[in-house]
Amino acid sequence: MAENLIVECGVPPRTAWRLASELSLDVAAHQFNTLTGDPRAGMRGTRIWEYEQWPERGVRPTVTALRVLAQVYGTSWKSLLGLRDLEQLPAKDLAEYHADVEPAAAPPGVAEELPYPARALARVEPGPEADVGAGSLDDAILLTKTNVDDVQLDDLWSDLDFVGGAYTRTAPDSALSQLAVVGERTAALLRGRQRPKQTQDLLLVGAKCASMMAWIAGDLGRFRLSRELNSAAWLYTQYADDFLARRWVRTSQARVAFWAGSGVESAKLASDGLNYQVGKRLTDAPLILAEARGWSSVQAEPQVLDAIARWTSIEDPELGAGGEDRFFNITKDRRHYMAGTSLLSVGQASAALREFKTAREAHEKLSLENRWGAMDPMIRIDTGRAHLRLDDLEGAAAQVEPLLIADVGRQPDMVRAMLKVLADELSGPRWRNVVAARNLAEALLDAQASARP
Questions:
Q1: Which of 260, 238, 307, 252 is nearest to 282 (CA)?
Q2: Span 372-385, pLDDT tens digits
Q3: 90: part of which helix (H) or strand (E)?
């Protein structure tokens, strides 16, 4: 029955075998969990449905999951994969597929009509000795056909590295446009045929490109676009099945969520990103600090202090932001700035000032090409806020007055947002009757209004 559903009705193999077994999604999930030895295990009917939608959408099933499902349906795990599935499998899984001697079920008599690797699914009747292996060379040559070469892949990675390295000195809208071109080229190539390893490389390019675009769109205040781009980036990572890519996306998602006003969501995304261990290529510092910053938005002091302590224990003062992932590996000035803002939000103004002082010193030591343009105004604004918490209006004014004569019109949206935060604090109960505070608040609002694009 499953074979008829696959061949005559065009039903995908995993759906066909479940229907042939007369199992609902939930019953199949229950039997899956029973076979794994834990009826309360995590398989759900919705996840099996997602497996059945792949590769057009949904989630790619692991080989381990396929082996268990095969037991549930009374077939071989290779029978649960069709031609489209094999074309999208990671190289490791594809190698396991071909290495497994377990036969795959397919309708007799149709093998000669199917391209490789679908012929591997068919039961071929023995023929004359002269026919054995006929067409094997053509099948093997088919595997070499691809619309991608190493030059194209290197070019895509180089473009990402260039934009990532230049973002500190590039207007956000310009960087976003450059990345959009990379994303379009990648998507166009993915519509063609590649070898499995090349497909994974393109998926990784797509994941990194989309997560960088989401980050930059957030800097421009375009949060809806940011979320859509991060969703696309996460989908790329699911197909690429790569821990480093998942870190890229979680780092971007946490940042966007925070500046969009979802602090707790930001903290949880950052915490999840730490589960994907990738060695020293992308350090834990940005995610730990993003977690602290997220919790600080709801004044969750224990969580903030715990995260700051974890960051302090691993902080390397000599750590720069070089290498292929410099876009995500933030520089020392930005790390200490993030720590300072988190401490300030939970009432640790003196500790925050120390972090801002370190951030300022680190920022000034950077070469001009490695300085992020928004860092100077952000440090000044939050240092001013810390001085206000310590009842030092004069110190606060000294920090932010240079911003009143500077052109902040090309700064990211977050700078304008923080100017308004400081102005609101100066207009609060503590300072509203102080003439100097009112004047400073009005000047900051004027600067904030003039900076709007």
A1: 252
A2: 888 899 999 999 99
A3: none
Can you give the length of the chain in residues?
Answer: 453
Radius of gyration (Cα) for the chain, nearest Å?
A: 28
Sign of the CA dihedral running 419, 421, 423, 426: negative
| Cα three-residue angle 147-151-155, rounded to 5 degrees | 105
Question: How high is the pLDDT of residue 311?
Answer: 94
Residue 408 has pLDDT above 80, yes or no: no
CB atoms within 10 A of CB 188: 10
Name the nearest CA neighbour of 212 among 252, 256, 243, 171. 252
Which residues contact residue 354 at a Cβ distance below 8 angstroms, ignoring those fewer than 6 apart? Answer: 340
Closest by CA position to 334, among listed 359, 317, 306? 359
| Residue 161 amino acid letter | D
Q: Nearest 10 degrees: CA dihedral of 253, 258, 264, 269?
A: 20
Give the whole-angstrom CA distance, residue 334 versus residue 169. 15
**Which tokens hold the place of 26?**
């939930």
- Model confidence, pTM: 0.65
The residue type found at 400 is V
In Å, how far from its chain's centre is CA 66? 26
The identity of residue 438, as a single letter, is: R
Exposure b/e, 406-416, CB count within 10 A at least 16 = b: eebeebbbbbb
Backbone angles phi, psi at 411, to 5 degrees: -80, 160
- How many angstroms separate the CA atoms of 418 and 420, rounded? 5
Residue showing tokens 């193999």: 13
Examine residue 107 and say whether the peptide bond preceding it is cis (omega within 30 degrees of 0): no
How far are the Cα atoms of 5, 26, 58, 74, 268 from residue 20, in angstroms, in the given order?
A: 8, 15, 21, 10, 41
Check residue 323 and give left, alpha or beta (phi > 0: left; psi -120 to 50: alpha): left
